[in-house]
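Hey team,

Filing this mostly as a record. A colleague (T.K.) asked me to run one chain through the structure pipeline before their review meeting, and I want the input and output archived in the tracker in case anyone asks later how it was produced. No errors, nothing strange. Just documentation.

Input sequence:
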Amino acid sequence: MKRWDQLLFLVIAFIFWFAHFLYIPMLSPYIEHLGGTFTFTGIVLASYGLMQFLFRVPTGISSDLLNNRNGY
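Output structure:
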């Protein structure tokens, strides 16, 4: 990869992950602002975490085991 391509990749990856990890801390106050209860907020946040655990982690592990990478 050229230097410019590496820099562009790093900037795009930072923006993606920054938005991704900003989502959860902002979701709880937003639900409360909309009038949601603490129970509902907990269910929403727990369902997000559960889906990450059930789909994202196994997908990454299986990709590593199969050595199935797209791209460079």
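Quick notes for T.K.: The chain has a mean pLDDT of 85. The helical segments are 3-33, 38-66.
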